[in-house]
Design brief:
The chain is of the alpha+beta class and 507 residues long. It folds into four domains: 151 residues, YVTN repeat-like/Quinoprotein amine dehydrogenase (Methylamine Dehydrogenase, Chain H, 7 Propeller); 107 residues, Immunoglobulins (Immunoglobulin-like); 92 residues, Helix Hairpins (Orthogonal Bundle); 138 residues, Histidine kinase-like ATPase, C-terminal domain (Heat Shock Protein 90). Helix 3 packs parallel to helix 4. It is flat and about 105 Å long.
Length: 507
């Protein structure tokens, strides 16, 4: 049921169409009157007064004048570009474009141009059937599905570009070169001799573009700025010197908006007595390449040395100290016996697990096959499951949208895993939670790690004599990121790392 701005009451029926109540009586409209087939799930009245109908199987209906005695109904279906004829929900943005939620995503219909654009999970939309939608007072659109809530900030479409330019003719010293009928957008000539230095080029736009104006310029020629817009369709370059040239031409509206350029590239060879410059250039290139190779080799050796130093420190500090602790606990167990021995043996077991985990870090740092996000995600899921299940805590971990096969610097993966491990350990030991959730995902240009629990709550304020919080912040700073604690009915710890080279992406 829906009441439009004119006070009319509309009813969507299961199969037989719609009913309108006004003036004390009902009027029924059926598919024979143009109503989409199937049940009508929702009515939506746009800012321009048009009434839109969401059908269960007949697509999207448009009533241009809801107050008319004889309704004019336009129906949009998959034949018009929609992804599905089953419409669940309707909303619009501030430019009057209609958004229809379906089981295959969201379709955006522009009533003025009748063009349709599809939004799916590939665009960031939460997967699953779109059940509901709304536009808030700031113009932001929200779409709800069974798997999540999606937010879309609509943007106005950019102005349409002029039609692309095409090369339709080419002559070298008056001799034509073969070009396909209708022209081409790119052409590369074979090397030209020193005497072949007069180039004539014909160009045009698409046949439906009308009387377009053109701009052109020649890289490597006299002047490199774009020419003033012209209606001419031919340009001649004569007596060109030897060198490499690239000719570009584009259609333009004259208001700073230009279409895709067409391109002609060619190389006029120098005379034989001048080609020692080319040899000199090759020599310079070889010198630069050799210097670059040497610098790369030196930097590679330094990186190996730094890794060896770090591994040695880790073995000394982590594994060495843990083994020493095992030896001491073993001596205590031998001397005391009884309950004291049981406690010492428990500490030995815990310390042994720490040693194994530390060795796992070292192996991951050395092994070149463990330099992808997939590896750290597996380790996170395994560690979180083990530590929480040991305390009867329900735990789930999600890594949707993370480029699992993308290579990453091992140092980044190490810090990321150690941050995760510290957060999870703190939650398991101190929060008293019964449920915990972890996620690793991408938001815009950030990689986000989030751990949430329903425990007692912690605001991230360091306690005297404890270094855990400061260590986490230092590791986040190494990754050029930030870490934040929020608490309410539990604690949520959020780590954000920028996705650029300093954060560890391998290009």
């Amino acid at each position: 049921m829906f009441e439009d701005r004119g006070g009319q009451i509309w009813l969507g029926m299961h199969r037989t169409g719609i009913a309108r109540y006004r003036g004390g009586r009902f009027q029924v409209f059926t598919p024979q009157d143009g109503v989409p087939f199937g049940g009508i799930r929702q009515f939506y009245q746009g800012a321009d007064g048009r009434l839109w109908l969401a059908s269960t199987s007949g697509g999207l209906g448009e009533i241009e004048d809801p107050a008319s005695d004889r309704l004019q109904i336009k129906v949009f279906t998959t034949a018009d570009g929609l992804s599905s004829d089953e419409i669940q929900t309707i909303t619009e943005d501030q430019w009057g474009r209609i958004y229809a939620g379906t089981g295959l995503g969201v379709d955006r219909l522009d009533p003025r141009t009748r063009s349709v654009r599809h939004f799916t999970a590939a665009d960031g939309l939460a997967p699953g059937e779109i059940e509901d939608s709304v536009r808030d007072r700031n113009g932001v659109l929200w779409f709800g599905s069974l798997t999540g809530l999606s937010r879309l900030v609509p943007q106005q479409d950019p102005p349409a570009l002029p039609a692309p330019a095409r090369i339709t003719g080419l002559r070298v010293d008056g001799q034509p070169r073969d070009i396909d009928d209708g022209g081409v957008t790119r052409i590369a000539l074979a090397d030209l001799t020193p005497g072949q230095n007069n180039i004539e080029i014909d160009f045009a736009s698409s046949p439906w573009a009308g009387q377009a104006a053109f701009e052109y310029h020649m890289d490597g020629g006299p002047g490199s700025a774009w020419s003033s817009p012209t209606a001419l369709r031919t340009v001649l370059f004569s007596n060109l010197r030897d060198g490499r040239y690239r000719f570009l031409v584009r259609s333009t509206t004259g208001a700073g908006v230009a279409g895709e350029p067409a391109e002609v590239t060619f190389h006029i060879l120098p005379p034989l007595w001048e080609r020692w410059w080319f040899l000199t250039g090759v020599a310079l290139i070889l010198i630069v390449a050799g210097r670059s190779a040497y610098q790369y080799r030196v930097s590679h050796l330094l990186a190996i040395e730094r890794m060896r130093t770090r591994i040695a420190c880790d073995i000394h500090d982590d594994v060495g100290s843990a083994i020493s602790k095992i030896v001491i606990m073993s001596d205590v167990a031998q001397r005391r016996g009884g309950d004291a021995a049981i406690g010492a043996l428990a500490q030995i077991a815990a310390t042994s697990r720490e040693v194994l985990d530390g060795i796992g870090h070292l192996v991951a740092a050395i092994n070149p096959s463990t330099d992808r996000y997939e590896d750290v995600v597996c380790r996170m899921r395994e560690f979180g499951t083990q530590i929480f299940e040991a305390r009867d805590v329900q735990f789930e971990f999600d890594a949707t949208g993370v480029p699992l096969q993308r290579k990453v610097k091992p140092e980044v993966l190490r810090h990321l895993y150690l941050i995760f491990k510290e957060i999870v350990s703190n939650a398991a030991k101190h929060s008293g939670c019964t449920r915990a959730r972890g996620s690793l995902h991408v938001e815009r240009s950030d990689l986000v790690l989030e751990i949430a629990d329903n425990g007692t709550g912690f605001d991230g304020t360091p306690k005297p004599g404890r270094n855990g919080i400061s260590n986490l912040k230092q590791r986040a700073a190494v990754l050029n990121g930030s870490i934040v604690w929020t608490h309410g009915s539990g604690t949520t710890v959020t780590l954000r790392i920028p996705l650029h080279d300093s954060a560890g992406w391998h290009r």
